[in-house]
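Today's session is about reading a structure prediction critically. Students often jump straight to the picture, but the first step is always the sequence itself: look for stretches that repeat, for charged clusters, for runs of hydrophobic residues. Only then move on to the predicted structure, which in these notes is written as discrete structure tokens rather than atom positions. Here is the chain we will use throughout the hour.
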Amino acid sequence: MRSFVGYHRIVPPKSRLGQNFLRDQGAIRRIVAALGDCASRTVVEIGPGMGAITRDLASKAGKVLALEFDEALAAGLAAEFAAASNVVIQAVDVLAFDFACASAAAGEKLVVVGNLPYYITSPILLKLAENATVLDRAVLMVQREVADRITAAPGSRDYGLLSVTVQMHGPVEALFTLPPGAFSPPPEVHSTVFRWRFAPRFDELGVEREDILRWMRQVFAQKRKTLANNLRAAGIESALATEAISRAGIDEKARAESLSIESLASLWKCLQKAGATSLEVTPEASDD
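Below is the predicted structure for this chain, in token form.
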């Protein structure tokens, strides 16, 4: 079989695709171990690149679906794993991948792993959140600053819209951080691996997913504004906003980033009861 390493010497990493390939063998083993027992599970790998994680997964997972956007890399992976009956390489954009169909074919919820390209990290996380009901758990690597926001607690500097959006779909925990030298070529930033266990909280909190996520984009629209000011900016009458905040047991001067998911859900339900949930379109929320 053609040497896979040799093959990739003629397919250099593409910076426009955020290709920084993990080469730290210890980190690879830790990532796969963090997935838990996958001997009978279907694991979807996002962005396998040169197959560093795929090789370890192939001997531990029941089935590996490796999704590689770069057609040249996908061809190299297909050549290397041609004889592996449990590894399927798909040259596909993860944002177009049908997780629900793959889960139905597997007959169970999917396990996900991946070193996410920095330039589309948020869209991939949102894609996974949208498919949370057919996913079991994920171990993902992202830029350290993004992981800090994903795992942040209420009231911390990093807590914001990304934090609540991800955590509304299940608990997250940071596992370990890697320096630039763990990759080839080295990125300019550190990277953090985190685990996400999918357990959507919308039924538990008594809220509709699409409604509350749209509303949260409004209340986090301007982090330096108070919650009351963001609600008014979204078109909710001042008196109604003030009353709902009071009924939810929240300080009128509070900012959204100081509130837990439970408090935010309580406020949303108070606004619903007051009939004050018709929001105007405002600029995209920022986690800055």
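Discussion point for the tutorial: The radius of gyration is 21 Å.
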